[in-house]
């Protein structure tokens, strides 16, 4: 029979494996889906052409440096910094630091206070700490293949995969374009730049407020999303700069990488 302490360690390990995926989707955007019926969405007023141009310009830029902070109620708060590209699938590298929340406490128990996240078109990789590696056969990296996530039985994995693909700044503009109460707030200064502030609510019954600040090149400078989760209020703020920056993300060594699904199976709760 498995002892209570062993079961607790295995549970913490499984939580950490899942938490690394949660952090990856939270650090750049939440992307609340529009859950209104299709016919209701079709009656929304046409968005202003100038905001359509922001979407196109941001998409064409292809890459940017990113700084973000995210708070998900009592569960998690993180900071992320790095660069992402989106011209040919999501690519890039972020350093994610856990700053608070119950999930962060679990990660600290496994010796992880920060992780490196690498995004490739087919998978996402998270580098954990040495304490985690001791429980994972000496391997530091977790691989999350998007196709595998989509095949998980509870449907949550598909949501993670879709959300991760949509964590680019042009997608934030597209999300806001679906708002029925979209409005221009006015001109503001954001990190020393003259910007135009737009706001709106998106997502139907699970509505979030999305605010963006756009510079005179029609590029996103700042984005703020606000909503609610089961553990409290959600707030995510991201800043974008150096559009067109060169972005790279190398696939970690296979011998130092463990597969997400295999880890969950190997370290699932025992009775």
Note the beta-strand portion: 25-35%
Radius of gyration based on Cα positions: 19 Å
Strand order of the largest sheet: 7-8-9-10-11-1-2-3-4-5-6-12
Helical fraction equals: 25-40%
Helix/strand-derived class? Answer: alpha+beta
Q: What is the straight-line distance between the termini?
A: 7 Å
Say how many strands there are: 12
Mean of the pLDDT scores? Answer: 81
Protein described:
This protein has 271 residues and is α+β, with helices and mostly antiparallel strands. The N and C termini lie close together (7 Å). A 12-stranded mixed beta sheet has the order 7-8-9-10-11-1-2-3-4-5-6-12. The radius of gyration is 19 Å and the shape is globular. Strand 10 and strand 11 (232-241) form a beta hairpin. The chain has helices spanning 4-26, 38-42, 49-61, 102-109, 130-134, 146-150, 156-165, 169-177, 260-266, and strands spanning 63-72, 76-85, 91-100, 114-119, 123-127, 141-145, 183-190, 193-202, 208-214, 220-229, 232-241, 257-259.
